[in-house]
Amino acid sequence: xxxxxxxxxxxxxxxxxxxxxxxxxDYQHLAVRQFEFQPCEAVPLRTEVSRRAQLRQAAPAYDSVxxx
Length: 68
Fold this sequence. Notes:
Elements: H1 2-7, H2 24-32, H3 39-58, H4 62-67
């Protein structure tokens, strides 16, 4: 679900972690190898995480603002 939030989309992919419906074979696959985001998802995800991290560094900490 974090992928949907960061990508701002409800789309699914045919393979990988963003696959809509997982089969028994998918779960068996997880026993030997982890699922990954597809390259077309990974690049925008990294970009969005970096953007949010930069915003977080530029803004005052939420906790310190709320506690005042």
